[in-house]
Design goal:
By secondary structure, this protein is α+β, with helices and mostly antiparallel strands. Helices cover 20% and strands 41% of the residues. The chain starts with a strand and ends with a strand.
Length: 308
């Protein structure tokens, strides 16, 4: 059976003594789990001593987690048993290392895929790694601020109305996505400002044409709907049009660094057949308020998957 290994880490501005009790008591996991956020209604059961946890959901599947070994303020090792959507076992662990005024938290998993999924090894390691990164980011917020500052609202099937837009198409790594998008949207808004406030309508949106999760690359367009398309758009802009359509919509509230929670939840819902995505129209992301004048914990963005 193909072996899987995932290692992810994060630095948290706190001590191992504060972080350790959050990790080694499974009663706390619901607050920062990168999976429970995708299905808050999943059935969760935790032993009274916080050392055994089991879950069962339509979206996140079923399984259980048992703490096998722990060294106070240093490490926790657990046995992970998946029951749905397929059966498999894994060993997952956390190590905490004090680094001056911070703590490095390392989350690892060693597992194997069913033999018939050998071809998905790299992809599955990438997906699990992204889940671990999301979970560590939520853990960091919880430890440093007392809250995870990321919430999802599953809006379901909504109507997206036809719109014309101007956009800038780019390709970059996931690592540079935020920086690149900020640059592209700044150029868009600077141009729109020369046309007057009434030239645009609606909210800025991103269209994600292609994801390469294994290589960590994305092709996207930074766009803004327009009432009328100006005749003098810059050469590196393009004009596009989106049709009226139905979309499966997930709303995220909180800092933009947690937007991956909404994307991952939408994709989990798709895999669980809660909707059937339209292949000809790529997914989108719409910002409902501006980072320039909105506190980051109040930022609202929606992920839209066009549906058949």
């Amino acid at each position: 059976m193909p072996k899987m290994n995932v290692i992810k880490s994060i630095y948290i501005d706190s001590t191992p003594e504060k972080i350790y009790p959050i990790i080694n008591d499974l009663n706390n996991w619901e607050q920062w789990s990168p999976w429970v956020i995708a299905e808050p209604s999943a059935q969760l059961n935790v032993a009274s001593d916080g050392k055994f946890h089991e879950w069962d959901g339509d979206i996140i599947g079923a399984g259980n987690l048992k703490i096998q070994d722990e060294v106070e303020n240093q490490s926790v090792t657990m046995a992970l048993n998946f029951l749905k959507p397929w059966k498999s076992k894994a060993v997952t662990s956390f190590t905490l290392k004090k680094k001056k005024n911070r703590t490095e938290v390392v989350w690892t998993m060693d597992s194997s895929l069913p033999f018939f999924l050998f071809w998905m090894k790299k992809q599955m390691e990438t997906f699990v790694g992204m889940d671990y990164e999301r979970g560590l980011a939520l853990l960091k917020d919880l430890v440093e601020t007392g809250a995870t500052n990321s919430s999802l609202n599953f809006k379901g099937i909504k109507t997206f109305y036809a719109t014309k837009y101007i956009g800038i198409k780019s390709q970059c790594s996931y690592t540079n996505l935020g920086q690149n998008m900020e640059k592209d949207f700044s150029q868009l808004m600077e141009f729109i400002s020369t046309k007057g406030e009434d030239s645009a309508h609606g909210n800025p949106l991103s269209i994600y044409h292609k994801f390469d999760v294994v290589k960590g690359k994305v092709v996207y367009s930074a766009c803004h709907p327009m009432k009328e398309i100006p005749a003098d758009i810059p050469q590196y802009f393009y004009v596009g049009e989106l049709p009226k359509m139905k979309t499966y919509t997930v709303r995220h509230t909180g800092p933009y660094r947690h937007i991956g929670n909404a994307w991952s939840a939408a994709m989990m819902h798709q895999r669980a057949k809660k909707f059937k995505a339209a292949k000809k129209i790529p997914p989108m992301e719409v910002m409902l308020n501006s980072p320039k004048n909105t506190p980051e914990n109040e930022l609202i963005a929606e992920i839209l998957f066009p549906v058949k």
